């Protein structure tokens, strides 16, 4: 048996139950993993509330790191004792031990701890595909990052700064502005006090940015289109404030023949070769010191509901990690 956080019905944080679950032996192609740390991400909230439906009952979570305890038939890339990490389906990371397909795992370098990995895999590989594949940020680009002091936001700011871009970011408080600035955001904007569209136009001398990275959703989407230069790109990769309304695509033409995409990490990592190459690039920038992973708070696994409360109330910065 293993302890896990599961939901039997969708709802608020109170729907999360800390309970015993049976853990089967790994089948062919699977690995039995003893988890050392588990990442908390906003997509976990979407699963908990039913915005992204999942079969019930189920354990939550898509990100974790730990040690291989046993392998099923046909597994050749891993052996017991290997330190590994993941950030992808199937959900079920909020657990002490779990079985997971081996092809979804990557080996951890010795210099990266399990706690650090659990705080960086999903957010870090999200930053990787956003900056290197969805829109390939180049030296001299100017970009806008919403929620710049959040887990993905801090990684985006650092990595984009490392690539030579000018980074503009929106944040909710002076404290978050200082944090974002310390992590590569050259122009933090307090969105509660300042019209971020006007601020972006002033910073860019009226030209706008090449790309907007928006995980906020309904509160920022439409105004973000006014921040983009002609032929620029709007990247909507989350909806923490609510789902974006249906869009008349003619607006994209009117605002400068803009590109719009709604990418997901799961699509970008569907092929194992892409998963491994993305993780390798992430590990390299972290090991070089160019990108630092901020673990703002850790919680015992049993207190996952409190982590969700803090996350939804926007009381957090950086990454949140559960410790089984």
Automatic annotation (TrEMBL):
Alphabetical list of SMART domains matching this protein: PKS_ER
Ranges for domain Enoyl reductase (ER): 11-322
Keywords annotated in UniProt: NADP, Oxidoreductase
Transmembrane regions listed in the UniProt entry: none
Pfam families noted in UniProt: ADH_N (PF08240), ADH_zinc_N (PF00107)
InterPro entries: ADH-like_C, ADH-like_N, ER, GroES-like_sf, NAD(P)-bd_dom_sf, QOR-like
GO cellular component: cytosol
SUPFAM superfamilies: GroES-like, NAD(P)-binding Rossmann-fold domains
Any GO molecular function: mRNA 3'-UTR AU-rich region binding
NCBIfam families xref list: PRK10754.1 (NF008024)
PANTHER family xrefs: QUINONE OXIDOREDUCTASE PIG3-RELATED, QUINONE OXIDOREDUCTASE-RELATED
The protein's name in its UniProt record: Quinone oxidoreductase
Native organism: Magnetospirillum moscoviense
């Amino acid at each position: 048996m293993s302890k896990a956080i599961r939901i039997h019905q969708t709802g608020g944080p109170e729907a999360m139950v800390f309970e015993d679950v049976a853990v089967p032996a790994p089948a062919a192609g699977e690995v039995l993993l003893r988890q050392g740390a588990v990442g908390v991400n906003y997509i976990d909230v979407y699963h908990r509330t039913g915005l992204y439906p999942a079969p019930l009952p189920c354990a939550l979570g898509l990100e974790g790191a730990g040690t291989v305890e046993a392998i099923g038939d046909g597994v050749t890339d891993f052996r017991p004792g290997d330190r590994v990490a993941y950030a992808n389906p199937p959900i079920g990371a909020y657990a002490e031990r779990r079985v997971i397909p081996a092809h979804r795992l990557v080996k951890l370098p010795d210099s990266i701890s399990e706690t650090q990995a659990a705080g960086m895999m999903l957010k870090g590989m999200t930053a990787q595909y956003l900056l290197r594949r969805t829109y390939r940020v180049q030296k001299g680009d100017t970009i806008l990052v919403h929620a710049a002091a959040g887990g993905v936001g801090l990684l985006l700011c650092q990595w984009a700064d490392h690539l030579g871009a000018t980074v503009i970011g929106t944040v909710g408080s002076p404290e978050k502005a200082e944090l974002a600035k310390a992590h590569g955001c050259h122009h933090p904007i307090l969105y509660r006090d300042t019209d971020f569209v006007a601020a972006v136009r002033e910073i860019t001398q009226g030209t706008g940015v090449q790309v907007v990275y928006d995980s906020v959703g309904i509160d920022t989407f439409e105004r973000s289109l006014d921040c983009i230069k002609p032929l620029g790109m709007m990247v909507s990769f989350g909806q923490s404030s609510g789902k974006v309304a249906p869009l008349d695509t003619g607006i994209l033409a009117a605002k400068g023949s803009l590109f719009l995409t709604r990418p997901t990490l799961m699509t970008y990592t569907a092929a194992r070769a892409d998963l491994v190459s993305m993780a390798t690039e992430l590990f390299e920038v972290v090991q070089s010191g160019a990108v630092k992973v901020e673990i703002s708070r850790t919680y015992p696994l049993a207190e996952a509901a409190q982590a969700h409360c803090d996350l939804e109330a926007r009381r957090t910065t950086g990454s949140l990690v559960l410790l089984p």
